[in-house]
Amino acid sequence: QVQLVESGGGLVQAGGSLRLSCAASGRTMSWYTMGWFRQAPGKERDVVAVINWSGASTSYADSVKGRFTISRDNAKNTVYLQMNSLKPEDTAVYYCAADQDFTIASSEYDYWGQGTQVTVSS
């Protein structure tokens, strides 16, 4: 079992930045691919970014490429999402997830956090 707790969400103006963190406990996080997903009201949960166990491989949604950066610190059992140049359309609940395979499919992820709200005002 892996427990995940997100933090760092909040209200920010368009063009601003936020850094989300996801702290893992239970099994060591270094065994898992970690992903960030988001869900806006009335929409499906979509992938934002994923990172493999070592940090050597990453994948990003086209909508966030060049603005968001995913990283991980396995010694701290923490994965991060640095979000720059935020837009109102980035407003959503952001979720951290863990899976043993490198995948962007949310249905494949076994473990999920409770989510953190990000609101970007125009």
**N-to-C span:** 40 Å
Shape: globular
What proportion of the residues is helical, as a percent range? under 10%
Strand content: over 45%
Query: What is the average of the pLDDT values?
Result: 96
Computed structural class: mainly beta
Helical stretch tally:
0
Spans of at least 5 consecutive residues whose pLDDT stays below 50 are: none
What is the makeup of the main sheet? 7 strands, mixed
| Helix/strand order | EEEEEEEEEEE
Please state the CA-atom Rg, rounded to the nearest Å: 13 Å
Number of strands: 11
Account of the 3D structure:
This protein is mostly beta strands. The chain has no helices and 11 strands. It has strands at 2-7, 10-13, 18-26, 33-39, 46-51, 58-60, 68-73, 78-83, 92-99, 111-112, 116-121. Strands 2, 4, 5, 6, 9, 10 and 11 form a 7-stranded mixed β-sheet that branches. The radius of gyration is 13 Å and the shape is globular.
Secondary-structure blueprint of this entry?
Layout: E1 2-7, E2 10-13, E3 18-26, E4 33-39, E5 46-51, E6 58-60, E7 68-73, E8 78-83, E9 92-99, E10 111-112, E11 116-121
Parallel strand pairs: 2-11
Antiparallel strand pairs: 1-3, 3-8, 4-5, 4-9, 5-6, 7-8, 9-10, 9-11
